[in-house]
Amino acid sequence: MVKDVLQDAEHRMAGALKALEEELATIRTGRASPALVEKLPVPYYGTPTPLVQLATIAVPEPRLITIKPFDPASLKDIERAILASELGLTPGNDGKIIRLPIPALTEERRKELTKVVHHRMEDARVAVRNVRRDSIEDLREFEKEKMISEDDLKRGQDDLQKLTDKFVNKIDEAGKRKEKEIAEV
User: Fold this and answer.
1) Alpha-carbon distance 156 to 139, whole Å?
2) According to DSSP H, which parts of 26-149 are helical?
3) Where do the domains of the chain lie?
4) Is the confidence at residue 26, as pLDDT, over 80?
């Protein structure tokens, strides 16, 4: 019983960490990365479709992303989606390929991005704490129904706290890595 609750909690906490890492990958630093635009929704025949499904995304230079649509007719839609996004990038195209130059970050923009990173980290911490709360409620319910002993409940809560601390530390590490990346000139 307790083991099942702990496994479920660990799985859900790992999901929160994975979601954070994916979110952080989309935050633009001074370096080009396909992750910046992969999930960008592009209206394709009336359906928002992730850019990665519509085009080949490459990084030929450290400050340039190239996007080559599989369907040349979608070039304008992709361009519009990039302009409408919060990336703050201006695409250029030659009729076949979209080129996205990544400008160097200003000090002001670095501070804004650091705030965004902190906000996303806090969201992930809250998600991990919610998993802990739900799992503790499950354990208490089991104890109330005499399915586990009071000692099992106490041990389960202690193990859950260790798990929570482990994932909060991983979240902090992921955030620090991203902050360091943002701070690089």
Assistant:
1) 7
2) 35-38, 75-84, 107-144
3) 2-25+106-183, 35-101
4) no
